Amino acid sequence: MIKISGKHQVSIFGEFSDIVPTSETILSILNSFKGKDFIPGTVREIAKIGTGNEIRLQLATQNKEWLVNFLTNRIDIEKNPIEGDGDNIGNIQNFVEEAVDICKRIIKAFKIKSYRLSLITTGMLDDMNSSKLDAIYIKLFNPISYYRKNIPFEWNFRTGANTEITIKNKKERLNVLTSLNRIHGLIIHQDVTQNFDRIEIQFDINTTHENKNQRFNINSIIEFLNQAIEIRTQLITDIKEHINV
Amino acid sequence: MFKKSIPKFIIYDQKYDQNFLNIDNQDIYSINGHKYESNYFKVNQKSTESTNDTVLRESYESFKNHNKEKIIDALLLNDFEYGYNSTSEFIIQSLFKENSIFTKDLLNDIFISNFDNKIIIIGLLKTIAHFEYTDISPIGPTMALAALSYSDPEVQECGIRAYENWGHADSLKVLNKIKCEQEWLSQYINQVIEILEEELIIYGTTCTKN
C-alpha cells in the first residue's frame, strides 16, 4: 500500500543539555560509534537561538540518509529517503533495529535515560487516478454538500487517539496519530522533475507528555518500539481495508 | 552502511508544514538538515512554522546557494603555502564577517557532504586551522576530531595539525585523550603535546602558530 517511503524517526526525550559539541563529547561519541559511518557535526536548534545553547551535536552519514540530532530535550534518530521511491528506507523492523543499535551506543556514551519515546514514519500511497482520490475523500470525510459537489484537490485527515501499553510492567499512555493528506508537489530525482498528486500517510506513535520521570532505559525503548510497530501494522491494515487500496 | 546516491527531494506545493503532535512546546528544525520533508513536532497541531523560522531557513538556503560552490572551488585550488593566505581562507574570512553563524553551518555542510573527497577535507582542515580557536568552535574542533576517523593518514595528520595550530589550552586536553592505533600518529601527537606543554611552562599559555 505504501509505495514511497518517507522519513522514519525514533525520538527519545529527556534532559540532554549537556550533550554539546565539545571535543570531549566528540571523542566519546566517536568511540561509541566506532565501525559506523557517522560523521560528527553540528546542527542549530532554532528554539534555542539567542540562548547561547543553540549549536548542538549531530551525527550524519555522508549522504544524510541517517541523522542523529542531539537537541536540548530530545534526541532524534532519522532515516531519510535518498533513493528513488525511498527504497533505501527498507522495512520498519530493520529501521527500528538500526535505531535501537544507535540508542545503545548513545546510552553507552552518555549514560542517559528518557521520559518520553516516539516513533514516526511517513510515506506515500500508490499512485491513483483522480476519481479514486476523490472517492477516498468522500469515504473519509463524509463531506458537506458543497465539497461533495466541488471535490477538494487538497485535504488533511488527521486522527489522534489514546491507548495504553505496558513498558517495564507498568502501564504507559500512548498517543496514536494517523494523518492521511492529499498533497501535490514535485519529485526531483537526478535532475528529473515529476509532478505528483498523491496521498501522504504519516504515523506518529508516542508516549504522552505528562510523566517527566526519566524512567526509560534501552529495554524500555525496545519494548516501546516493538509495540509501536504492532500498532502501526494494525493501522495500515485498517486503512487498507477502509479505503480499499 | 551508506550508499552513494544523489538525494531525492520532494517539494510540497503547500505553503504549510505537515504537522505532527504537539510535544513539549518545542519547535525544532535544523537549518542545515536534510531537505526532504518538514515533519516535526510543533507547538500546536494547527500551527504553521513561525515566520522567524521560515525567514532564518530561507536566509540560510540563500547564503548557501550563493557561497557553497565558491568555497568548494577555492578549496579545490589547493593553494596552501606557508606564510600566505589561501584563497579559501580569504573567502571564508570574508563570509565570517558577513555572517559567522551561517558560515559555520555551511562549513559543516561542506565537510559532511564531501567527506569522501580528500582534497576538500584537507583544504577545509588547513583553512580552519588558521582561524582563532574560539571563533571557529565548535565546528572547527569537531571537524579536526572527525578527521581522525578518516582512513587516509594525511587527513588524520591535518586534524592533529589543526589542534597544534590553534595552540589552545583545550588542544592539550584533547590531544592527551586521543588514542590511536597507528604508531606514527601517536608519535606525532606526543610531539605536539610536548611542544604545547613547553609553551605552557615558558609562557603560561600556548601560542597560536599561524
Give a verbal description of the structure:
The complex is a heterodimer of chains A (245) and B (210). Chain A contains 5 helices and 9 strands. Chain A has 245 residues and is α+β, with helices and mostly antiparallel strands. Chain A has a 9-stranded antiparallel beta sheet. In chain A, a hairpin with a 3-residue loop joins strand 4 (66-70) and strand 5 (74-79). The model of chain A has no long low-confidence stretch (mean pLDDT 92). Chain B is 57% helix and 2% strand. Chain B has 210 residues and is mostly helical. Chain B has one domain. At the A-B interface, strand 1, helix 1, strand 2, strand 3 and strand 4 of A face strand 1, helix 3, helix 6 and helix 8 of B. Strand 8 of chain A pairs antiparallel with strand 1 (9-12) of chain B, so a sheet runs across the interface.
Biggest beta sheet attributes of chain B: none
Overall mean pLDDT of chain B: 76
What distance separates the N and C termini of chain A? 7 Å
How are the strands ordered across the major sheet of chain A? 2-3-4-5-1-6-9-8-7
Q: What is the helix/strand order of chain B? A: EHHHHHHHHH
Number of extended strands of chain A? 9
Treating each run of at least 4 consecutive H or I residues as one helix, how many helices of chain B? 9
Weakly predicted, low-confidence segments of chain A: none
User: Strand-and-helix sequence of chain A, N→C?
Assistant: EHEEEEHEHHEEEH
How is the main sheet of chain A built?
9 strands, antiparallel
Radius of gyration of chain A over alpha carbons? 20 Å
What is the number of strand segments of chain B?
A: 1
Shape of chain A: globular
SS summary, helix count of chain A? 5
